[in-house]
Amino acid sequence: MNDVLVGRALTKRFGQTVALGGVDITVRAGEAVAIMGPSGSGKSTLLHCLAGIMKPDGGEVHLLGRRIDAMGERGRSQLRRTRFGFVFQFGQLLPELPAEENVALPLMLGGVPRVQAVRQAREWFGPLGLRSMETRRPGELSGGQAQRVAIARALVTRPAVVFADEPTGALDQQTGQETMRLLVESTKHNDASLIVVTHDPNVAAWCDRTVEVRDGRLLESGALA
Amino acid sequence: MNLELTWRLLRGGGRGGLLGTWLTLGAVAVATALLLFAVAANSAFQARTERGAWRNPVPAASGAVAVEASRFDFVRDRAITVVDLAALPGRAPAPPPGLPRFPAPGEVWLSPALAGLARDLPAAELAGRYPDPEGVLGDAALVHPGELVAVVGHEPDAPALTAGRTDDWVVARPPVKVASLAGQPGEDAQAYQVLSLIASVLMVVPLLVFGGAAARLTVARRDRRLAALRLVGATPGQIVAMTVAEAVIVALAGALAGAVVFALAVPLLAGIEMQGGPWFTADLFPGPLVLAGGLVAVPLLVGLSAVAGLRRVVVSPLGVAKRETPPAMRFVRVLALLAVLAAFPLLTRGTSVAVIVVALALAFLCVNLAGPWVVGMIGRITAAGARGPARLLAGRRLVDDPRAAWRTVSGVALTGFVAGFLGLLSPSALDGDAAGPLQLRVTAPAGQAERTAELARTRLRDAGVPATVRPVKDVVVAALGSSADPAALDRARTALAGIVPGRTPTTGHDDRRFGTQILADVRVGTIVVLSVSFLVAIASAGITATSSVLDRRQTYGLLRLAGTPLEVLDRARRAETLIPLTVMGGGAILTGAFCAVPFMIGGVSLVGVLTLAGCVVAGFAGVIGAGALSRPLLRSVTTDPAPRPD
Ligand SMILES: Nc1ncnc2c1ncn2[C@@H]1O[C@H](COP(=O)(O)OP(=O)(O)O)[C@@H](O)[C@H]1O
Ligand SMILES: [Mg+2]
Prior knowledge:
A: four-stranded antiparallel beta sheet, globular, B: alpha+beta, six-stranded mixed beta sheet, three-stranded antiparallel beta sheet, binds magnesium ion
């Protein structure tokens, strides 16, 4: 019953390429799941299908018991804005906005008045170790700091699920570990589920469990951490 | 090896890179075409000056071979240039341009248009003045095709060449003994050349802003690819060489395309009537040297601009192009140089013109200096007052890169300045031509007013033109009455032709001809300059909007993945242009109007104000439209579900 996000028999092809060949996956409330696999195995495609970015060719996706893969682009777009959070490898922050406004943007898009949105956004800076970074712009932040701002932005709308595609891909090992710690801790603290796509076992180790993707299929359910 | 790499760099840029290359090519083409037009306008007026020089005799210091005089005659609403010529006894002067031989006494030569008109109109209206034409003048004799010119041969002691004439070049040129018919530039032609020079400055300034932006476009988008190249071991020198080579190749192609576009447009441009007629197409083509110079200079400037642009991009091998504050605009220096260059030859011509041009250039300089700063201020205010995300994004964007926004609006802002300046400058004389009583006046030789009046009375009666003729001091006035139509007027003119040797009976309207003509031409010129400026502004707006989508396609794509509605991004992009456009367009018009105040002679012109309003509306519509063109690109760029850095 506490299954938050369920994907059933998901298939997706790009021309001749079978990116997903029938994937079943269940993510429970507050759970952190790592999706691992070699490059081109279909990890990102799976994430995109689960997050409503892409419509799968076959199969279903349910969020809290509601089917979302059949929704129109508008509905899915709104869903992504309100129920999901995203952390990408890099380049997701608008360079001209100060960090706090980058974080406040999803709230403002949801109609929260600007002053309130910025105040809410600021509350995330302390816990993520970004104190006094509020008015810096992305160009003035280190890679790790920028990813933490991205984490704040993903969580500020209190989403049900946070999707992260190679969130540490552009960071060095140590900063990557620190970023993963903050990502996992803060999603758990907010009762959000986390799906992390990575090819790095050290990153996957932060998650509760790992699923392996090979040629668009799940290999096995990884052991519980 | 470098060339080969460059070629691959050119072709391997992916869809976005290719589009960027096409944009640069298009921008350079537009800039080159308009630049050629600005140059051609000047050489065209120069050509007209040279064409008309032979009618403006230079008194011979020694070795006179002929006597030359000229005056204006009129038919319907058009002026006829009448040149009276006589060979001095025992001399055989070379023929004037367009004539096979020097006209013998009594011979009349007409330009093709005048000959045609003389055939079409009743003889009593025109042909009677120029009986039995000997032949037709060639194009070399004419300032423009369709010009009305008559050349009349005389004995050197003929009254037409001995009687005094008004020494006012607007009306006539008195007889002069000349050593040749080479002549000299006429005052009117020189006035037009100065005006065309001012028009060129007005066109070239927005063109430079635009061209500079276009050149930087090639470089700006190369950050990541350059970083990738450095990663595989290319030296900074190689990268600079490749980038510049690429920019120059693209610019050369663009310049060639622009030259072709200009050549194709020449027949259309030749139809723009100035000084009472269209143009010889040959006059509109700048010389091959100028053309070649343009084709070399444009790619060279783009290459230099590319180097300057590259220096601003600090490429780190990790692929993160660090943003650094660009140094103070070099463009200012270019403008200052331009102002000095423009002022220098003018200082020798007459101080008032130099003052106008320098004032204009200085005002432009100020507008351009202040532009980005004002855009930044506008952005700060917009961001501070924003409640929704779109305005916040727009405001922050303006603060972040005011120069980019300035490039977009600078065309219209400068055009607004031009429009404000010229729109109000146009004197109102043209708007209403107070129609007085229709009368022909001619100054009689001293003491012969009564006798001339009597002769005029007889001639008009014989011609069947009702008129009351009376002498007023030296001037014989023939009032034609309110029932006279243009045909009756021309019958009267024909009847009175030659009544005073060397003088033309004229109406008040005829006497104001030069002023009326130059005002009409200034208005045409204003419209041409405005059109050019708008073309620049619209092209620049479209290109800037498109390149900004290309530049941030990754961020836009990721924002869309995270559920940001595209409408918000679109609204932000629109506001980003419209807010500074509204503030600065209006500001520029006011600045222009303010600068025009010292030069305002004939009060504010209603037509000018209406033209101005039309231009503002057209400018806004054009810029909004050009910005909207990149909307499908934004859509397609952000639809890619997995945007990857290329
Ligand atoms: N938009 C697309 N168009 C065509 N093929 C695609 C597209 N996206 C992914 N693919 C292909 O689908 C397969 C899986 O891709 P992806 O899910 O991105 O793999 P991963 O994230 O595991 O590296 C790959 O073979 C890739 O080339
Ligand atoms: Mg991937």
